[in-house]
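Extended Data, panel c. Modelled sequence:
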Amino acid sequence: MNIPLDLLILLLTFIYVFATILIPVQLKKRDKITKYQARKAVHLFAGLAVLSAPYYSWPWWAVILAGSMTLLTFLSSKKSSIKQLKDLYDSIGEEAEEKVGYLQGPFHYCLSITILITIFVIFAPDQMYFPISGILLMIISDTLASIIGKKYGKRKIKLPWIKTTRTLEGSLAFFISGFLLCFFAFTFLGVANPLTQEHLSIEVALIYSLITSALATIIELASPSTWDDLTIPIATVVCVFLLTLI
């Protein structure tokens, strides 16, 4: 166990996360970007801190990091007595979160990361490419699908059990970007650079990527937008990992 190196990685990761939160918040306060842009910037960049997870000699540091962010988003509310937490809510909070009073979407986002990292730290610390691939889908593919869907979406997809309307263009963007992201996670951590992870062949990485991205696209279609930060990564990763055990 290399504690000094672990603490250095943890410190640098915390600095990165807070920078990805504070910069969009300050830009929003100065009206340089919209609330939607600030929220998507935080959503897109903050979660990339999960890429540090495989490199801790004591993997529970990754759980501590994710858990800290989960607590931060839960405490960020319009009634918070801490100015910085209230500013965060005011800068990236959505109208749909008014009823619950806290950052429900970002909280689910951080909670799903914490749950997935904890599960794999306990049961499969040498296969962190599974949770990382699912988290990258939530971080990047979900964001890209939202942007593409809003800007270019013409073919609407309506499912009776959810209130949110999807678009074919957004879902295609989700699937294509998801496949590329999963292939990156599985190949970089499992094929090309398996320093701390179980080795994968390129063929297995390709199959995992196709299954993961396809399954995640279906789950994204069927998930309410306020819950997809939980349902997409957790359901996808658990299903794919269980398939590998068959």
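The chain has a mean pLDDT of 89. This feature is highlighted in the accompanying rendering.
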